[in-house]
Amino acid sequence: MSLNVENCVRCGSLFRRVRQPLCPNCLKKIDEEYEKCYKFIRKKENRACNVHELSEGTGVSLQQITTFILEGRLSIDNNPNIEYACKSCGGPTRSGSLCQKCVGNIKKMAGYMQEDKQRQEELVEEERRSKSGFYQVGRDEPRKS
Fold this sequence. Notes:
48% helix, two-stranded antiparallel ribbon
């Protein structure tokens, strides 16, 4: 029988893990932080705030606010100025963990990799064809004059 005892990834305290790597106290604090953020951005006067103003107004870290947004817990559809940092370049983004520029670069690189793979396969096929042909003595040899 296993006890599933672990250290909380947030506070380091020892607890019995059920599903998440967070202790019950940290889960409660995170829920409270979420409630603060939710109530803050729901107020009409705060709809034009950015993520830094949200963090200052609630006392919740930027990282935790970004986590709420990425988990889909905190909707920013009605808050046009809330953006968070792209995980690749640090530029602003409103959806996903990467900005549109980084997504475009990754798609471009994936396209180049696909082209390289096709060229490599074509070279292998061409080499296979050149080695597998019949060779006839007298016909395929260059004539001596």
